[in-house]
Structures are given as C-alpha cells and as structure tokens.
Predict the structure.
Amino acid sequence: MSGAVITAETAPVIVRKQRDPLFTLGCIIVALSLLLMVIGPWIAPYDVGRPTDDIAVPPPALSEVPGLLYAVITGAPHEPIHWFGTDTAGLDIFSRVIAAPRTDVAIALGANLASLVLGSLLGLLAGTARPWVGALVMRLSDLVQAFPVFITGMILVTLAGRSFTTIVFTLALLYTPIYVRLTRAEVLTQRHRGFVDAARALGKGEAFIALRHVLPNALAPALIQASVTVGFAILMTAGLSFVGAGVRPPAPEWGLMIAAGADQIIQGEWWPSVFPGLAISLTVFGYACFGNGLERRHAR
C-alpha cells in the first residue's frame, strides 16, 4: 500500500464543463428560425396566400389536440385542422406563422450582414487612419445615432419604397454605427499587440497588417453583437410592417399579421395577433440567449 498522502493540493482536479441551458435553448431557437426561413413555405399545410373555406375559425382546444395529432399521424379521416385558427380572410395562421421567417429572419440577417461588413471596415478605418479621418467617421456615426431608430427607419423606407431590399439597406444603415464603435475600440487595442510589431518588423505594409492581422482579431465583439442585433432587427421589421411602413401585404410577415388581427381582439378573436406575437417574442428571446451565451464563452 502506497504511503503517499492525497491532499487538496495533490488531488486530481476534475474540470466540469459548465452547463448553459439558456445558450442551448438559444441555439435551438436560432436553428429552428433558420430552418423555417429556408423550408417554412414548403412545409406549411396550407397555401399562405390562398384563403380557405373556414373563416375566423379558432384554434382547437387543448383537449382536442391529442386526438387531432393521432389522426394526423395515423392518417385517419378528420376535418381540416387549423392549429392556430384562421383569420377573417380564411387564411391559415399556422401556415403563415411558419412561413414568415422567410421574410422577417431573412431581412434581419441581410441587414446585419451588411451593417457588420460596412461597420467593421469603417471601424478599422477609424482606428488605423489619420486622426481626422477617425474623427470624421465617428461624427458621422454619432449623426446616424442621434435620430430615433424606428422613426428614422419608417421615414427612409416610406421615401425609398416599401420593398425587401429597401428595408434591408435601411436597417443596415441604422445598425452600422454599432459595429463602427465596437470595431474601432477593439482595433485601438489590437494595433499595439506584439504580432503587429512583428509584422512591421517583417516589412509588411500598414494596409496589409490592418486587414490581415488587426481586423480578424478585432471582430469577435462585433460578431457577438451581431447575434443579438438580429433579434432587434426582427422586432424592427415587424414594427415597420405593423405601422404600414414595412413589407407589403399579403406577404406572410409577423408584423402584418398582428396588425391585421388587432381589430379582432376586442371582439374576442385573439388568435390572429397572439400567435404571430408569440413567434416574434420567442425568436427575439432565442437570439438574445444565443448572443449572451457567445459573450459568456468569449469572456472565459
């Protein structure tokens, strides 16, 4: 028998991976939103633009759901099922809710990608160019952020025309200052690191160093912010459509669906607005959990 004494200092340390259920939930919601963005209109049980014969039908009661699911799985004869009910035009709400990510999520991703690219390049320029150039870039960013985001977006989309492309570029313009500030702050830190001095010693040019070494190492905060900003962009897209300054009807879009069903709530027909609203809330929550989880992992 060995005479070695195991103490707290000599005992093997078991490093347990910290669980992050909110991050896991965020990953699931983000993956589901991306999946529905691609295949949502194809798997919808009803045509999203064609009215059915059922007008303003409420969703089935919870007690009826098991029987309806059994009928669907086994192929037993059953009446037409509208899981989220139908609106006053006879459109199936469930089909439109799962088809809406093709519009809402696509606009949010496109706007964030454009603003991330533009904002990162401008932030790199502000952090590496002459002081007056950096000051000019930052003052322009301040100018954009000086106006209320929603009102500015509503005015720009109304003036330029209500289209998918217009909304994407409008949101990209409004979100660019966020990435300018994040990237510039990180660039000012990275440009004094040892690997930058080593690249200069090897005779590399300033532009090459900025694009090849500084920018890739400065992008982490901007990428984390982008995952959260997607949720804000989804909320912004739905808000613009709700006030009549976003996507044109009859496109399946969450904000349009809420606006179309708002008048029916006081009549007791809550489902045309509630289910799209829940879809927005769940999606924004998922992207927030995903982004916050990435931030926690980056900080470790």
Residues 271-299 form the longest helix (29 residues). Confidence is low (pLDDT under 50) at residues 4-8, 10-16. The domain at 104-246 is CATH 1.10.3720.10 (MetI-like fold).
